[in-house]
Design goal:
This protein has 248 residues and is of the alpha/beta class. The protein has one domain: Spore Coat Polysaccharide Biosynthesis Protein SpsA, Chain A (Alpha-Beta Complex), CATH 3.90.550.10. Strands 1, 4, 5, 6, 7, 10, 11 and 12 form an eight-stranded mixed sheet that branches.
Amino acid sequence: MSKVLGIIPSRIGSVRLPRKPLADLCGKSLIQRTYESCKKSLLLDDVIVATDSQEIYDHVEAFGGKVEMTGEHNSGTSRIIEVADRHPEYQNFINIQGDHPILEIQHIDSLAIHLFTEYDEPFVITPIFHLTSMEEVLNPSVVKVVFNKQKEALYFSRNRIPFGLIKDVPSDNFPYWKHLGLYGFNSEALSVIAKLPTSYLEKYESLEQLTWLFNTIKIVCVEVDKDVLSVDVPEDLERVRDLIQKKE
């Protein structure tokens, strides 16, 4: 069976929440919570934090996690590619966002299972969640996706897609899906992505996966039944702390 490496790109700079990876969440940092959530997956052969920050590097080593230093990168995927190139023993990779401290096992395992399938072409796997809130649909921070009948992505947008000229859409047929921001790659896909110039679609939407679609890389959407709580602003930290206190 092919091996799967989980990689968590992490950087110290954040406009909306400075020093976010080191933020305290009930006695553990955000990056440690994320790392430990990933380690619960039995389908990942290993997990590595990838960072260009010496402070994050030292912190991850201190709590016993695996970490590798990288150069500066404009995207998490670019950072993933640098680390993946160092590990030819792996055929598949999962890009796990460093600001997802309460990941469900299904978010990772749903991608890993599909990566075990042998494809004859570069492909990407990504989880999606069915939205039922128009507030989230209209929120540009929530990335939406539309896909074909084979669950292959057609387009991602910060805007509302489909636009929806039909009024009073029934709640049991709400046509909106949230993209959760995790990706599974086979090594062929990373090799192709590493060479791609930024597409005009990515520039307009600020979504790197649009460059992959533009260059006809298949992105397969996998439905999961739980959303991902992302930490983006200080208020999110309080929400996560409340959830952790209830669980612990």
